[in-house]
Amino acid sequence: MAKQEYFELGAIAKPHGIKGALHAFLDVDDPYEYDELTSVFVQEGHDLVPYFIDDIQIKPNLNLIQFEGIDSVDKAKELVGKKLFLPMSFLPKLKENQFYFHEVIGYQVEDVNLGLLGLVKEIVSLGAQDVLVMMYKEREVLIPLTDEIVPKVNKKDKIVNTVLPEGLLDIYLND
């Protein structure tokens, strides 16, 4: 399977204890949706390698994973920093106007006042705020992902509808 058929679940943070268990950071809204996983894919170079799970514990601020065959601190250390992936089919279903960031890449951005503006290049998390990145008149424009600014995503027509604050585009166009 191609990497595009997977989503990034999180990453291995550090070893836990002496028997090869690992702390994992899960970059998801509800980690408890993944507390019965039996395997994950670990990125090793350009490849995604399946790892089978002996035990997984999901708790507030603590996610522990014990992989089959990883039975020492030394083996666990080899996985630190590596990203964890799952097939797209593991993504939870969303409500009507919700979307996953990867879904809207390539969608048209259409503003209620300005019309079609450009294509979604990517979505970036800037700590407290997620932003949609769009190319407009050969400039990269960041659009805050709030309900007020992005009231609707039309998946059928692949359009992100916006109500941009007055002057937002001008900030990026003025040298």
From TrEMBL:
Signal peptide: none
UniProt KW keywords: Chaperone, Cytoplasm, Ribosome biogenesis, rRNA processing
GO molecular function, a single term: ribosome binding
InterPro entries: PRC_barrel-like_sf, PRC_RimM, RimM, RimM_N, RimM_N_sf, Transl_B-barrel_sf
The family this protein is said to belong to: Belongs to the RimM family.
UniProt-listed NCBIfam families: 16S_RimM
HAMAP family with a match to the protein in the record: Ribosome_mat_RimM (MF_00014)
Protein's name in the database: Ribosome maturation factor RimM
Organism, scientific name: Sandaracinomonas limnophila
